[in-house]
Amino acid sequence: MRHQSLHVQPAVHQHPATRLRTALCVAAACAALAACKPQAAPQQPAAATQQANESFATLVQACTQFVAARTPHVGKADIAGNSVWTKTGYSPAQVQPEVMATESAVTPFVGKIVIKDNEARATAATDAEAQAITLTPAHLLSNRTHTFVYSFDGQQWRWQNGQRLTKIPGQNDRMDELALAEVSAPGSQGFAGCLPASTTPPAATK
Q1: Which residues are registered as beta bridge partners of 143?
Q2: pTM confidence score
Q3: What's the N-to-C CA distance of the chain in angstroms?
Q4: Is the Cβ–Cβ distance between 193 and 63 less than 8 Å?
Q5: How far is CA 124 from CA 79, 82, 133, 135, 137, in A?
Q6: In angstroms, how far is CA 119 from the centroid of its own chain?
Q7: CA atoms of 115 and 95, how far apart (whole Å)
């Protein structure tokens, strides 16, 4: 009978201090990985999510209809030191909504509506001449992006803030914060149709 020799690797004996350092390093690495893992927002109850999404969809629909119904408006303006009549109009707008869950029990959802359009303007010496102008792409004044932010308190949506990014050919881009008074302005100059029904416009100053 032939005997096969078995080669056994000798055990590596670590000093107790070495084993302790190794264990500490492994524990620290695990803790670091846990800390770096992104934490998702807690899942909201299905009924609350449905209510937030449905009520925001209603707001988005009203906003979309409002901007689609805008018509050119005529008024006086001071341009380069001259008082002239202007006719201003807007292109069909792109309305992009978004709803996100948060970790807050007070405002479990936040919403955003982004409105992109082009602004056209022409000038005239009189009101009648301005009214008769037909705006075309040649009258392009600027590309605009309005961003409106809302919060949902579990019952209704509330307007929080807004800003406008304006791009004018040949000029630097401009970012403006929008006050509620500007957003709630009547007619085509404002975005009253994009405000929740619970919003109370600021009182006009005398």
Answers
A1: 118, 167
A2: 0.75
A3: 115
A4: yes
A5: 11, 11, 9, 12, 17
A6: 20
A7: 5
Q: Check: CB of residue 185 under 8 Å from CB of residue 202.
A: no
| Higher per-residue pLDDT: 9 or 116 | 116
* CA dist 32 → 23, 24, 64 (Å): 14, 12, 47
Residues 6+ apart with CB under 8 A from 179: 202
CA distance 136 to 206: 38
Distance set, CA 22 to CA 10, 18, 25, 142, 143 (Å): 20, 6, 5, 63, 60
| Cα–chain center distance at 164 | 11
Kindly give, in sequence order, each residue whose CB lies less than 8 Å from that of residue 53, ignoring residues fewer than 6 positions away: 99
Which tokens in the block code for residue 206? 């005398």
Pairwise pLDDT comparison (74 vs 27), residue with the higher score: 74
Distance of alpha carbon 84 from alpha carbon 32, whole angstroms: 65
